[in-house]
Design brief:
The chain is of the alpha+beta class. It is built from one helix and three strands, in the order βββα. It has a three-stranded antiparallel sheet with strand order 1-2-3, with helices on one face. The longest helix has 27 residues.
Amino acid sequence: MDYFRNDSEAATVGGLTIENGIGSASVHGSLVLKADAGSLEQLRVLQKRLADMESALASVIEEGAFEEVDDVAVLETVSNPFG
C-alpha cells in the first residue's frame, strides 16, 4: 500500500482493517492471536504492514508533505475497572 498518499486502499489482517487515507491511516477491528501457526503468520503480516506504514510515515514527515498536528492524544494506561 502507498500509505498516507491516497484514500483508495485498504487491507485486512485477521479481524483488523487498515484503511489508507491522504495524510492519515486508520486501523480498526480486533485480532485474536492463539498459540498456533496461523496466528504466528497473522502476527508476521501485521508486523510487516506496520513496518511499511512506519517507513511511509517517516517519509511524508521528512518531505513535509503534511502539516504537524499539535493536539495528538497521548495514550494513558488505566486500571481495569472490571477486574
